[in-house]
Amino acid sequence: MERLFAALNPSILVRRGDIIFTFALIAVLVILILPMPTWLLDIALALSITLSIIILVTALFIEQPLEFNSFPMVLLVATIFRLSLNVASTRLILSNGHEGPAAAGHIIYAFGRFIMGGNFVIGLIIFSILLIINFMVITKGSGRIAEVSARFSLDALPGKQMAIDADLAAGALTDQQAKVRRKMVEDESNFYGAMDGAAKFVRGDAVAGLLITFINIIGGILIGVLQQGISLSDAAASYTFLTVGDGLVSQIPGLIVSVAAGMIVSKGSTQGSADKALFQQLSAHPTALGICSFLLFVFALIPGIPFFPFAIIATAVSGLAWFSYEKIQAQKDTATAPSKKADSATSTASQLPGKESISGIDMVRIELSYNLLPLLNRNDGVKITDQIKNIREQLGIELGFVLPAVRMQDNMDLEDNHYSIKIKEIEAGSGKVCPDKYLAMSPNGEDIPFPGEVTTEPAFGLPAKWIAGSQKDAAEHKGFTVVDPATVITTHMIELVKENISELITFADVQKLIDGLNESHRKLVNDMVPSQVSMGTIQRILQNLLDEKISIRDLPTILEAVSESGLGAKSITALTEFVRSRLGRQITHSFAQNNVLNVVMLSSEWESEFASSIVGDYNSARELAMAPSQLQKFIKKSNDLLNRSDVAIHHPVIVTSSNIRPFVQTVIDKLGPRTPVLSQNEIHHKVSIETLGEI
C-alpha cells in the first residue's frame, strides 16, 4: 500500500507527465481498435465530461488568451477522445443493443432516460437542438472570430515588432523586456493561427456526431431486424434510445468545449477574467441598469404577463444600479482628494521643462517609404533599430550625451526607396537606398568595376554604387567598403545628429546630467546656481562644446571651470573658452594620433586681422566685422592649404589664440567638412606637435 501511495505522489506524476500523456494517447488509439467493456466505457465517458468542464472553467478564469495557449492542443486531444468513445459506444450499441437499454453502459442509459423521459422522439428533438446550437451558433461564431483574429494578428505583426524595436532603440525597453515582448507577439500570432485551425476540429466534431447518430440508428435497426430477429418497432425503440443517449453524452461535452473555445477567442483585448470583465463593464453604467429596471416593471404591470418574475428581477436590477452608482461616486471622491493635494506639486514640477513639454514634436525621426519598412525587421543583416541602439550607446560614450528617442515611421508621401531624417520636425537630410542591394563605396574615388546603379554616399559624399548581394564578397576583396541599406540610413542619421547635436540637449537633459552627479559635485552646482551663473548658461556652454564635438562626459571638470570663471567672464563665449582650456588634455587627446598633433598654424598677419576685426569686449557679446573681401581671401587660402594632399591626409587641426578661436572656427566651417580649430591654451604640454603649414 505504501508503494502504491508513493507511486501516486503528485510530484512524481508531474515529473513523469510526458510518459503518462504518451500512454493516455496510446490508450485513446487502442479504444478505436479493441472492444471496451461497459464499466470502462462509463469511466471514460465520465472522464470526458470532467475534462470538458475543466476546460470551460479554466477559460472563464484566465485573464488573457495566451494564459491558455495550449488550448488548441487540448481541444484536439479532447475531440479525438470523444470520437474514440463514440466508436467504442457504437460497437457496444450495435453488438449488444438487442439485450436492452443498459447494453452500452449505465451513463448512456441514464442520460437517455433522464433527458428523453423514456420517449426517444423527445430525445431526437433535444439532440437535434443541441447539435444546431453547437454547429450553427457557437462553433460558427467562434470559428469566424478565430479566423478574423488570426488574419488581423498576422497583419499587425510587423507593426507590433516595429513598435517594440522603436521602444528598444529609444531606450524605453531593456533587451530582456524587448525579448519578452517579441515572444508575446509571436506567441499571440501563433495562438490565433492555431485557434483558427482548432475551430475546424469543433465544427468537424459536431458533423461527426450527427453522422454517427444517423449510422447507429439505421445500422442498429438493420442488425436488430435482420440478424437478431426482433420486430421493427422494438429495434427502432431500443437502438434509437441507445443511439440518442450516446449522442447526448458526446454532444454535451462537445457543447461545453465549444463554449470554452468561444470564450477564449472572443475575449480579445479584454483585461481580467470573464466574470470580472463582465460585471465591471455592465455595472459601469448605472443609468442603463436603471432604465432596464424601469422597463421590467412596465412588463410586470402589463395585463396577462406574470407579475412576480419580472417584478423580482426588476427589483434586483434596480438594486444593482444603485450599488453601481454609489461605487462610482466613491471612486470619484477618492480620486479627487489626492489630486487636490498634488496641484501645488504639479505646478512646481511644470516649471522644469523637458522633452515632454515639446508637445507632439519628435526630437529625431526617421521616415521611410512603405517599401523600406521591411528593413526594420529583416532577418539578414543588422536591423535599423539594433543599429540605432548601438549608436545611442556610442554617442553616450563618445560625447557624454545620450541621444533622445529616435522615432521610426512610414511616410506614404515618400517615393519608393526614399527616406527622410528629421530633427525637431525639420528635415535635416534625405536619401535613396535599394533595399535588396548593397552599397559599395570607393574611399579613394576609383571606379567600382561591378554593374549597378551609380550614386553618392549620403553621409560623406563618397562615390558609390548599388551592387547585388552576390557581388558583396568580391567587392570587399577588392578593397571597397560595402554596407547594407540599413547601415546607409543610420550612418547618415548619426552624421546629421552630430551636426545638430547642440539643438538636442535640452534644459531637462542638463538637469538630468547634474542629478546623476555625486553629492559633492551637486553641492558645487547648488553653490554656483543661480548666484554665479544660471542653469540656462550651463546649458548654453554644453551646447557650445557639443557643437564642436567636444565630449561633456567630464561634467565635474566643466562645472568646476564654470565656477572658477563665473566671477570674471560674463559672456557665454568667454565662459566656453575658459572651459575648453580646462579640458585641454581631453581635447588634445581626441585629435592627436599616436601622441602627435598635426597642426596648421595661423600666421601673425591673420591673427592681427581677426583680432582687429572683432567688435565688443571679451566679457560681453562680440561679433566679427571683417571686410567681405578679406573673408573671401582667408577662406581661399585656408581651402587651398587644407586640401593639399600632403596636408589633408593627416587630418590637421588649426591653432590660433584663444581670443579669436571661435570666430576662426565659424569661418572655417564654411569650407565644408569641419576642421577643428584649437587655441594654444587647449594643447596639452605632453603631446608632440607636427606643423604641416601656415595660413
UniProtKB/TrEMBL annotation:
Top-rank taxon: Bacteria
Example of a GO biological process term: protein secretion
Subcellular location: Cell membrane
Keyword rRNA-binding: no
Primary location group: membrane
NCBIfam families in the cross-refs: FlhA
Name the UniProt record assigns to this protein: Flagellar biosynthesis protein FlhA
Species this protein is from: Candidatus Bodocaedibacter vickermanii
Lineage: Bacteria, Pseudomonadati, Pseudomonadota, Alphaproteobacteria, Holosporales
